[in-house]
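Subgroup meeting minutes
Present: P.N., E.W., G.H.
Scribe: E.W.

1. P.N. recapped why we're keeping a running log of single-chain structure predictions: easier to compare across weeks, and new members can see raw inputs and outputs side by side.
2. G.H. added today's entry (324 aa).
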Amino acid sequence: MAKRDRIGRGGPDLTTRIGGVLLPNPVMTASGTSGHADELAAYLDLGSLGAVTVKSLSPEPWAGNPAPRVHPVRAGMLNSVGLHNPGVGAWLADELPLLAATGARVVVSIWGSSAADFERAARTIATAWAQGRAPSLVAVEANISCPNVEDRRRMFAHSPGSTTAALAAAAAGLAGCGLALWAKLSPNVTDLVEIAGAALDGGADGLTLVNTLMGLAVDPSTGRACLGAGGGGLSGPALHPVAVRAVFECRQAFPGRPIIGVGGISTGEDAAELLAAGADGVQVGTATFADPRAPARVLGELRRWCARRGVHRLDDLIGRAHGH
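Output recorded in log:
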């Protein structure tokens, strides 16, 4: 791991470098859990986080799935929001300025139903960046864990070929702008390392691991699914060990590539575990639904966890499970 530049003084140095992205600490929000703008600003200082990752945006507005969209389960939460969003152009004009005004560093998540959609969304962002209309952006996260109409509505991230194509399209759209490109991958595959390699081959600078597990809840009294769209994605505590293994295995396979760990983080120790497994940064998601202050709380707990255990620099923790 390359050594980090210091940002700030006092207490453990939590500065992290995720490839070319330097952040004051590793804790971010996860896409889909903190809105498109400054929705969480009433609960925490968004500028104090490493970054805020917004809900996924498509080239054009998208209505999402029918209600109900969220259902609590013992192991966490099922959701089937369906990537509802205003479109990347409207977001850049109307919502990014609100988020930027909080001082937040912003990771913009994009998705599409085809590889061409990823290129269009990325190109719109690159144009705004070049024109100075999006200076708060630090990275683009390609959410390829979404339906692919070019492949019978399978997810891009379930096929190495589709994964490479989607990332290559996003990379082409961002060409020359300098923004980092991260690939958010699905755990619902037999060999995640193979898919991760395909994402990197397509032009991803880093990996976000992982998106939700596929799940279903049924009301036994009616026999109907509890979500309006039928099945959904399982997130929360049950996902955490899956994320830890995904990060660990991909760090082993790609020792020099940036990795962001996400899945079931609700405490500072959860974050520390993913960092020890090899993540350079982490994202807090489902915990925010129960506690909107969760990302800031996790950051504070991580700082205290490091101080109690003599971890003076994040480099001393990152990759510890690999003997780093």
